Amino acid sequence: MQKIKKVCVYCASSDKIDSKYFEATKTLAKALTKNNTTVVYGGGARGLMGQLADTVLEEKGRIIGIMPHFMKEVEFHHKDVNEFIFTADMHERKKQFMVGVDALITLPGGCGTFEELMEAITLKRLGIFTKPIVILNLDGYYDDLLNMLEKAISENFLADAHRDIWTVFTDPSKVLEAIHNSKPWSNDAIKFAQV
What residue ranges are annotated as transmembrane (predicted)? Predict the structure, then answer.
């Protein structure tokens, strides 16, 4: 089984969400640090981003924040994360999230998280990104999005094969298992990107 050395985690910056999401993030962060997996994330200090960073740091793991300069200027960045990449804009940030990672992990989040996930799915469909994309569907949080993707498949906006782009899991402690259970993907995917 291939070692998962580095992952990117997409997640929320909101502090006003249910405590179950913070607990799930903590569990997932512990599973990653126990595996000595480096975590890349959006660099924030609040919400699930803050919980992710705090837990990785408490567990003596390695975490890298990636954030546009303008966000640092309004003090969104986590002051205890000592490895940062500051980018010119949000587009460059999203590119950097994917550099050298073995997987992308999506936790519950808002429009920024949705947008990052959908761009990753699009890039994987085109064979530009080929690593596992795993989605933590905690208590059905992503049911509506997953149903929308199924609708896109059933109405021929996506092909049946595109279902293998993402893997859904519900137990944050099993994040590594979800990554390993993801189906292999090739950069030849461009050949069947068109439906």
Answer: none
